[in-house]
User: Fold this.
Amino acid sequence: MTNIIATSAPTPRIDTPEGLAWHLDALTELVPALAPMRAMAGTVLPRVNPRHFAGMAKVICGQQLSVQSAAAIWSRFEAVPGALTPESYLRLDEESVRAVGFSRGKFLALRAVAEAVVAGELDFAAIEALPAEEAIARLVTLKGVGPWTAEVYLLFCGGHPDIFPAGDLALLKAAHHGLGLDARPTIKEMIGLARDWSPHRSVAALMFWRYFAAVKNRETSLL
Assistant:
């Protein structure tokens, strides 16, 4: 994996209320049709997680798990001395990591991330500053990091302003209802729709999740 040189982010990150509000205003100005969804969603707040190696560890921990299961395993993992920095993680043995609930695949995936960081081949800050598709493409070169892991890291840990996890079922349902579509969009169709919301796709995703929660509480049968 080649070294990545950091570039200046063209728009604010979304890990502060100010940055998130800036993007929401810009999004609804760019796409006025989303304004009713924003109104229904109510307050959209940043979702802040650890960054860099610790953040990727938390995302890998949560792969293919319920929120509750992931939280329980993460609480045990972060309590392991040395688990949250790449250099010290590489000194942990597989048995110690798997004892907290990691699978062998997750242990190895995080080890590959740690090795890339220590070797100077992976610079999270630099990747977070790249355009969305390029940032995702760089992360998925790491063994055990697929598109979902890359997108979730960039959105919730990296504060990247332009990520839309189009495969998320709640986002697809929100688009179906909120945009007045005849049918729930496919992932491919959702990617196409969201492309027009760039460079504000992350706040669109956060707003859609809030919209989905609000509408589900009122009109369960519609979703």
In short: The two ends are 43 Å apart (CA to CA). The chain has two domains: 17-47+163-222, 52-157. The chain has a mean pLDDT of 90.
